[in-house]
């Protein structure tokens, strides 16, 4: 039976232990599916390309459409939950996500697949923020940390197993099942949401900053289309330049708007927090390279080295395993050397490891390739952990909500930009390098990895602006943000 509506002040004891456990599993599963679908398609792109009659080097829009939509929708999801009710919005999110997945599986052209991935991203963007809000509304304060930690774990696992699971599904069935597996989960999730999810609303919900939201959304879409314009969309140089100028104008206009608006969607006061501003900008630029690698590596292995989708997925396991292990090391390094030294050195190391993939060849020993992937996974994971804790450590209670939301937006935007930049570079070098071609694009991959490594290493100067004595974490942050 469904529970009566509750408010933010309703006591958690009105819910039975069974209801609380089901709610946790429901939110955790939603977060898992959301994060899983950000990486599960990467190993299946060549198979999708063959099925849709496209070049595997021009399939980046399938990844970009999902992550960019997530970035655009994140700012509005929490407001919708407060205004319309948690149960209604979470139910709609699961339904839209599952329906988008079903339509993706039935797409017959690349354009159709991209449109349905956008729909999938709309639903996926609301799953974590709204689900986390439900947990905070229902669980007593003493159980917040453990409940949020439980919800966070599947979200950490999803991106790690995504490439391998995607390759396995392609091997035993077809790429369509990457999306079809979401449908039964979505049906079960809708039923559980209707029965167990609280329907809390916030009667004091402030008016949504629609003008600020539209400026940010238009800016994000314009910069993504401009970067992808020459590669996949075939836009003229003048059009690309106009889109770049438009994106810059939108971001500047938002800054001017936020100084006058009574309640801007993201207050500019957040940038007065030194660690937050440096961490956020560092995340944006350093994650461009990190967002490109999960797209580039499986494509390199399949298109240039002859791996199957499943074999390419298995090759991503050393990246995930080394990443999980290295998370235990970075805290001690930060306490000993400080955030600035750790992030400057590690950012350069991440960039060098990305550039090291220009040495990839058909004759490279397997053990060396595995070591290379493991080292990259280790330093990349340390980078994420250090950047994320730096960004969130000094937000405090007042800026936690808007700061976390802006941070989530930047994470998804940088993932979208990473794939966009990688796709544009790969297409450009395939056309420019005489030895590169669609049949043998290995030289184009080499040049792309080098450029991505340079971009990442260059972002180290942002972290160099930190004070050398910043070491401790000022507050405990939501574990679900540390991905």
Automatic annotation (TrEMBL):
Subcellular locations according to the entry: Cell membrane
| Keywords linked to the UniProt accession | Cell membrane, Membrane, Transmembrane, Transmembrane helix, Transport
Recall the GO molecular function terms of this protein's record: transmembrane transporter activity
Query: What's the protein name?
Result: DHA2 family efflux MFS transporter permease subunit
Look up and give the membrane topology term: Multi-pass membrane protein
Q: What is its main location?
A: membrane
State the organism named in the record.
Trinickia violacea
Q: Which Gene3D superfamilies match?
A: MFS general substrate transporter like domains, Multidrug resistance protein D
**Which InterPro entries does the UniProt record give?**
EmrB-like, MFS, MFS_dom, MFS_trans_sf
Q: Where would you find the membrane-spanning parts of this chain?
A: 20-41, 61-81, 88-108, 114-135, 147-169, 175-196, 208-227, 233-256, 268-289, 295-321, 342-360, 366-386, 406-426, 446-467
Q: What cellular component GO annotations does this protein have? A: plasma membrane
PANTHER family from the xrefs?
BLR6921 PROTEIN, MAJOR FACILITATOR SUPERFAMILY MULTIDRUG TRANSPORTER MFSC
């Amino acid at each position: 039976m469904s529970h009566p509506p509750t408010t933010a002040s309703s006591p958690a004891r009105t819910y039975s232990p069974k209801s609380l456990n089901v709610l946790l599993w429901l939110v955790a599963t939603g977060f898992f599916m959301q994060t899983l679908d950000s990486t599960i398609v990467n190993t299946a792109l060549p198979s999708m390309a063959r099925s849709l009659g496209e070049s595997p080097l021009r399939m980046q829009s399938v990844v970009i459409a999902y992550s960019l939509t997530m970035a655009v929708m994140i700012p509005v999801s929490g407001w919708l939950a407060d205004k319309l009710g948690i149960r209604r919005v979470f139910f709609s999110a699961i339904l839209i996500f599952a329906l988008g997945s079903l339509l993706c599986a039935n797409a017959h052209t690349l354009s159709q697949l991209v449109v349905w991935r956008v729909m999938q991203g709309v639903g996926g963007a609301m799953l974590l923020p709204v689900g986390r809000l439900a947990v905070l509304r229902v669980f007593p304060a003493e159980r917040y940390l453990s409940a949020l930690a439980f919800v966070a774990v599947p979200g950490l696992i999803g991106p790690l197993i995504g490439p391998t699971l995607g390759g396995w599904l392609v091997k035993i069935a077809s790429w369509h099942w990457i999306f079809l597996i979401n449908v039964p989960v979505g049906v079960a999730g809708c039923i559980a949401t209707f029965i167990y999810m609280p329907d809390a609303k916030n009667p004091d919900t402030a008016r949504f900053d629609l003008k600020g939201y539209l400026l940010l959304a238009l800016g994000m879409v314009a910069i993504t289309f401009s970067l992808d314009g020459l590669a996949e969309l075939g836009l003229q140089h003048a059009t690309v330049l106009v889109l770049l100028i438009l994106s810059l104008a939108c971001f500047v206009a938002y800054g001017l708007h936020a100084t006058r608006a009574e309640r801007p969607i993201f207050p500019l006061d957040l940038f007065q927090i030194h660690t937050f501003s440096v961490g956020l900008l560092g995340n944006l630029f350093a994650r461009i390279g990190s967002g490109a690698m999960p797209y580039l590596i499986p494509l390199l292995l399949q298109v240039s080295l002859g791996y199957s989708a499943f074999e390419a997925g298995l090759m991503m396991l050393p990246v995930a395993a080394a990443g999980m292990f290295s998370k235990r090391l970075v805290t001690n390094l930060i306490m000993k050397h400080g955030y600035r030294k750790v992030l400057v050195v590690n950012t350069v190391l991440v960039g060098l490891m990305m550039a090291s993939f220009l040495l990839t060849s058909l004759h490279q020993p397997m053990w060396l390739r595995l070591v290379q992937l493991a080292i990259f996974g280790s330093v990349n994971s340390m980078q994420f952990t250090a950047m994320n804790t730096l960004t969130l450590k000094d937000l405090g209670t007042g800026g936690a909500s808007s700061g976390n939301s802006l941070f989530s937006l930047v994470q998804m935007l940088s993932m979208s930009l990473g794939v966009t930049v990688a796709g544009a570079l790969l297409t450009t070098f395939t056309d420019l390098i005489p030895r590169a071609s669609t049949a043998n694009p290995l030289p184009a991959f080499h040049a792309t990895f080098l450029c991505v490594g340079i971009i990442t290493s260059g972002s180290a100067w942002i972290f160099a602006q930190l004070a050398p004595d910043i070491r401790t974490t000022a507050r405990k942050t939501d574990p679900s943000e540390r991905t």
